[in-house]
Amino acid sequence: MSDRRRTPLYIEVxxxxxxxxxxxxxxxxxxxxxxxxxPAELEAxxxxxxxxxxxxxxxxxxxxxxxxxxxxxxxxxxxxxxLSAEGMHTTTGLLGxxxxxxxxxxxxxxxxxxxxxxxxxxxxxxxxxxDFNWVLGRYxxxxxxxxxxxxxxxxxxxxxxxxxxGTVEQRTASVLLELADKLGVRRRTGVLVQxxxxxxxxxxxxxxxxxxxxxLLSRWRRQGLVETGRRWVAVVDPxxxxxxxx
Amino acid sequence: MSDRRRTPLYIEVxxxxxxxxxxxxxxxxxxxxxxxxxPAELEAxxxxxxxxxxxxxxxxxxxxxxxxxxxxxxxxxxxxxxLSAEGMHTTTGLLGxxxxxxxxxxxxxxxxxxxxxxxxxxxxxxxxxxDFNWVLGRYxxxxxxxxxxxxxxxxxxxxxxxxxxGTVEQRTASVLLELADKLGVRRRTGVLVQxxxxxxxxxxxxxxxxxxxxxLLSRWRRQGLVETGRRWVAVVDPxxxxxxxx
DNA sequence: CGCGGGCTTGAACGGTGTCAATCGCCGTGG
DNA sequence: CCACGGCGATTGACACCGTTCAAGCCCGCG
Lengths: 246, 246
Prior knowledge:
Shape of chain A: globular
Strand content of chain A: 15-25%
CATH topology of the largest domain in chain A: Jelly Rolls
Radius of gyration of chain A: 19 Å
Number of helices of chain A: 8
Oligomer: homodimer
Structural class of chain A: alpha+beta
Strand order of the largest sheet of chain A: 1-8-3-6
CATH superfamily of the largest domain in chain A: Jelly Rolls
Number of domains of chain A: 2
């Protein structure tokens, strides 16, 4: 057990400069709705963006603020949340490199429909609304691709919606597997979710209380399915979890 | 009480012809993503569509079928559902005149991501995928507008998602009010939801069991908030319901 | 008039939320 | 380097909402 005496996470300090021109270019090619652009066009797009750095816990924007920017995640992880009745956060998405957030899902509104918060240190590319419209007008393929991208997001949200029909156990298993897939790194035993993640964060993600999630993880830990610690989780037996995940 | 001896619903028989050219034209102007088009352009769009009639209970398309058409609802109400683990339906949306469904929310997939079923008699306009792509290519404004439209749908789905956090009472109140708004007709007492709607249908809509919904409606009926019968519901006191609806 | 499907109601069970107490890791300051 | 303080995690007890299983009822149709 000496393995997990201390946090096994890499605590990287991301500074804005860390988003080098090479990284920016690379990321842009991974964004689905720029995928049809030629290198020269990508370069033109790149010039319209500026990069912004965030440290874990920073808010990228908040629900209700005037929507003015489209963000593309270059490095790090960002979660989007919505406030329900009593300051209660509900997580609506978990975004990694190549994913987007901001005005695009909020088209047709003049304010952001959700808040976005950096889970880890992160570097984002930001497009002003005018700049992005310029891109949309100039490269029609981007419009179509953006349409698919938002549709994918829609499908993912519908997935989440009908998963709620299931138990906390099922949802937690799904979320853990998704986390391991999106930002897991292999360790000697299992896959570590490479981002600080408290029980409360996890609870928000699955739509449950921290106590419930804690109990569940304790059981799974005893059964050898996961390893956990203060603000971190690792998936040891993905297959067993997949059994639960509907 | 002699009021509700028998079904108070109009059992209209919608025939496809009922979707007259005038209705079609009118509806197209109400579809958000055609709103920027000039009359002549709308006409061109109209010629690409064909109208299809459905009676209550008919499936417009089913989850998993190859996605080939975009539908715009001209008259009537359509619900979209997804199958979960055990044949369990989860309703993901409730669509009225001017709303759309079909390939658009499924862009980036080659099969429908959901099933669509007519709740009442309904007339839909159908665009083949090639026809709609033609429209997208010819009128760039449609692409942008479609982007907003899908975004709106996304927001609505996220709404539904975080409403689930609440109780069955809250969700049922919301759904009843939405139903009354979308397809209610005024009666001497209250607003009748003009479509055959069993307790089971309602239960699917709110994500609960028929027994639970039945109990709830019984209570509300005793309190004078609603009137109900075999396969129908009427909202008597919308304000009181709104109190519950978060 | 009788049957059947939909509706209602009852009772028991179980998963989760809630409240509350305790433990233990980790960063801080002496 | 060690003691301390605080926050996050854990665990228990309990209440409650909603499901589940099981009867029985009633409307509306043949």
